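User: My advisor asked me to double-check a structure prediction for Methyltransferase like protein before group meeting. I don't want to rely on an old file, so could you generate it fresh from this sequence?
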Amino acid sequence: MASTSTLWYLKDLPLYRDVKPYVLNIPLARIPNGQRTNQECYPESSVKLNDIRLSTRTFNLDDMASRSLLKFRYFSTVRRRHSSFPAEPRGSELAETDQPVQGAHCDYTPLEAFKSLEKVVGKEKAAKVWTQRRVQIIQAWRPLRGPVIDWPLAVCDVNSVDGKTELIATDNVWSYAVFETYNVLFSSKHAWYYIANQNENETSLFKGFDNAEMFQLFVPMRLFS
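Assistant: Sure, here is a fresh prediction for Methyltransferase like protein from the sequence you gave:
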């Protein structure tokens, strides 16, 4: 069984062929008269969303044997949603605390994945590990309370995404660092999946990066209403 919803995608503007998209995650008071973002997104309506529970497909991650370098960390920080969300989403004046990400995106570009690897193994070892071993970033998503009915997570089948033409590198600027992620351009071929009524005892695992498939294995994701 499938449902439909509206998903937000980056507009395919000529601007992004020359200028990198960015968003400043900094309070507006610190950047007077500045442009907080040059991202232009739009709502794509009637996008098909497939319930994984009812799918006849078998979903799995690639082989994660000894050739893979795996590092799992649990981050205790919880992103708290502003009471005005989604009327005042990320980037708005009221969003002093970063809000849930509504747009289709990937958390890791090759550059950002390499920076994450440096944090795990150190700068001296990172280049050697990157070129001689398989590096994967596996992301885990678990609700704090369930069942999740409001804004569940949707992930896109990587086989339905053209990583060379549909992923646009974007700078997310914070006061302490700059993180590079991918925005996603729309394609009618994208196959989206979600877990209906996901509970706190159910954890979703999906691949955020794999250097064995540099331009393919990035799983776009987003929240939908």
